[in-house]
Design a protein that fits this description.
The chain is an alpha/beta fold and about 500 residues long. The protein is about 45% helix and about 10% strand. The strands form 3 sheets. The chain has a 6-stranded mixed beta sheet with strand order 10-9-11-8-7-12, with helices on both faces. A 5-stranded parallel beta sheet has the order 5-4-3-6-13, with helices on both faces. Strand 7 and strand 8 (about 325) form a beta hairpin. Helix 2 (about 50-60) packs across helix 5 (about 115-130) and helix 3 (about 70-85) packs antiparallel against helix 5 (about 115-130).
């Protein structure tokens, strides 16, 4: 039967768990057939989860009195549009594929695509309004889509004020370097950044490789339209860049030959020089390697902010009932009391950008003097320095972690503590404590949802990722980079 069908036959074998005819049997006689089943282990899974939850979401949100034919058609168009868009990074991870693009084996989106709700629900609500069946018409459909996005990406609510500022910033003030642009996650993040108008991306990478990978991943971004390219193999500014770098470092062991070599191969160095020369406003780097590796080049070219003596990294964990910022997770191995005081003040300042009122707790194995170890004395001294330098900041210490996160317990132990609510900025005594606590919380309680790493103390907006960074985390830091750049102007 299949063999006798017309060219490019469409076979819908939707019985579960055993289709009426297996895809292998169809392909054995017709290699031009387009096949769909109800099973997830074959291409083109037809599943009602693709649309029903999101049709009802849109209908309920606008108070629709019925599901009209126009609402059903709007759903079909939304699904078709999403199928022709680039593949989601979450889909790629879930299904273990990286090269899905619209065609015979990808006619409809995967059921786990997180963008289904964002696409379908607004389309359904809009159709309901146009059909006159919406009792509560949605005035601002873009705002509604943004709200839905917060359900899909758990960092959405937290990042909302940052995204709003980034979107409104003029293009001339949000030129952000993506140093490892040939990396898949970075390219996917850049597509989102462009779609949401968060930044004007500048990609460091070989043009031919970038284009090949953009095509491979089915992305829509176009060079010189959506982003600028810095080719590390050839750029007319190369001579100026390496000469400037040599002038900065010739008394720090860098020779002319080495300066030329570094300026060709170190993308973080190229990005830093772009910022120094005024060709860019900020940079995202670090999808490979270590924080010290990238910070080395950032420090050589851009240095610390005026009046700041230390770099540090803050990470924010989004938990079910709270947000927690932790410092210093990546830079200072065993910071002094002086450094901890400065790090705490820098972190508190950054938290305010997120719309959070910082309440800092300096953590220790000692709880308000129960130990006089060197570490406990350091945290005690740092607390005193912070109170002296930032009298308006709510801060206390040294204390146990459970005391910091339980205001009732803190009040019982220390009734006169300046902290009136649970602490949300946890300052650790060393990098081991900070990094271990961050990673344990992120995996066991935070479902992997984190904002960061946020670099503190740099003269220019630069954030150094970690190799485990997700696409959404790259997007979040790009938006934060824009906000930092706008604030500096």
């Amino acid at each position: 039967m299949v063999k006798a069908m017309a060219a490019r036959p469409l076979v819908l074998a939707l019985a579960n768990p055993t289709p009426e005819i297996l895809p292998e049997e169809v392909q054995a006689v017709r290699d031009d057939a387009v096949i769909a089943t109800g099973r997830s282990d074959y291409p083109n899974q037809v599943n009602n989860v693709l649309c029903f939850p999101y049709i009802f979401r849109g209908a309920l949100d606008c108070g629709a009195t019925t599901i009209s034919r126009s609402m059903e058609i709007a759903t079909v168009h939304a699904i078709a549009e999403l199928a022709q868009a680039e593949q989601s990074d979450i889909v790629a991870t879930t299904y273990g594929v990286t090269n899905l693009s619209f065609g015979p084996e990808y006619l409809i989106p995967k059921p786990f695509d997180p963008r289904l709700m964002i696409k379908i629900a607004p389309a359904v609500a809009q159709a309901a309004q146009e059909a006159g069946v919406a009792l509560r018409p949605i005035a601002d459909m873009q705002a509604y889509a943004d709200k839905l996005q917060q359900f899909v990406y758990h960092s959405g609510t937290f990042m909302k004020p940052i995204f709003q500022i980034a979107k409104k910033a003029p293009a001339a003030r949000k030129r952000i370097i993506f140093a490892e642009a040939e990396e898949e996650r970075v390219l996917r993040a850049v597509q989102i950044v462009v779609d949401e108008n968060l930044a004007k991306p500048i990609l460091v990478g070989r043009p031919a490789v970038l284009q090949k990978r953009i095509d491979k991943f089915g992305l829509r971004i176009k060079p010189e339209i959506d982003f600028e390219i810095i080719n590390p193999e050839f750029d007319e500014r190369y001579r100026d860049f390496w000469q400037t770098y040599l002038d900065m470092t010739k008394r720090k062991g860098i020779t002319e030959q080495y300066a030329k070599l570094e300026m060709r191969r170190r993308h973080t160095l190229i990005g830093s020089m772009m910022i120094h020369k005024g060709f860019a406003d900020g940079m995202i780097c670090g999808t490979f390697g270590t924080t010290p590796l990238h910070l080395h080049y950032v420090n050589q070219v851009l240095g610390k902010r005026e009046g700041v003596n230390v770099y540090a990294v803050m990470n924010v964990i989004i938990l079910q009932d709270r947000q927690l910022a932790l410092v210093d997770t990546h830079v200072n191995e065993n910071p002094s009391a002086e450094q901890l005081a400065e790090i705490t003040i820098l972190a508190a300042e950054e938290m305010k950008r997120f719309g959070l009122k910082p309440r800092a707790a300096l953590l220790s194995h000692s709880n308000f003097g129960t130990s006089n170890s060197e570490s406990a004395q350091k945290m005690r001294a740092a607390t005193a320095l912070i109170r002296e330098r930032a009298p308006d900041l709510e801060v206390d210490g040294e204390m146990h972690g459970d005391t910091a996160l339980d205001a009732a317990l803190l009040k019982k132990m220390m009734p006169d503590s300046p902290l009136k609510r649970d602490a949300n900025l946890l300052v650790m005594p060393n990098i081991d404590a900070a990094n271990i606590a961050y990673n344990l919380l992120k995996v066991t309680a935070g479902h992997g949802i984190a904002i960061g790493p946020v670099l503190l103390g740099c003269a220019k907006p630069v954030h150094i990722l970690t190799p485990s960074a997700t696409v959404r985390r790259i997007v979040n830091l790009a938006a934060l980079c824009v906000v930092d750049a706008v604030a500096q102007r």
